[in-house]
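Complex record, two chains
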Amino acid sequence: EPEVTQTPSHQVTQMGQEVILRCVPISNHLYFYWYRQILGQKVEFLVSFYNNEISEKSEIFDDQFSVERPDGSNFTLKIRSTKLEDSAMYFCASTGTYYGYTFGSGTRLTVV
Amino acid sequence: GQQVMQIPQYQHVQEGEDFTTYCNSSTTLSNIQWYKQRPGGHPVFLIQLVKSGEVKKQKRLTFQFGEAKKNSSLHITATQTTDVGTYFCARGGSNYKLTFGKGTLLTVNP
């Protein structure tokens, strides 16, 4: 069964540093997303990406965040200057048509 | 934003007991999806409901969509320890964006 692959599985970074979280969505999917989940809390929408551009973003997705699909397979989330409150599990997801998302296993980001 | 409210937040049952989680919206839902997240895992898609009054079954799981398309439920018959996890409902929106409820954490005592 096709999978969404995320790397790294765990990233520890110092406050103020830049991090890049990587995702390889399912190859024939068209819609890509980043969500985050603070421990024990709900899954929060960050951004959706379609046709090589952002289609929607949440209030959380401020100027510190950016997404790219640099080579047609990878889908990255960059946080330019991390804050303590950015510590969370970040999930990438993709979907082809409206039948449900496939989520990656997530990257646990710890900002110290 | 257009939220979905999920209750209960937690449910602890004895193995073999039934379990139900409810998802409610103040506005009409175009569709609702359900996901399961095992402890330490990622959300896994279970089902999508689209039609008013729709009922779908997956083995011991029964999913319902209300007639007014403002609520949905997931019912598990005779829970097993493998059912442990958090069950999320999610409303569909534009660009296939999903807005998740806070989830119901199910624990099962063997």
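Note: The two ends of chain B are 40 Å apart (CA to CA).
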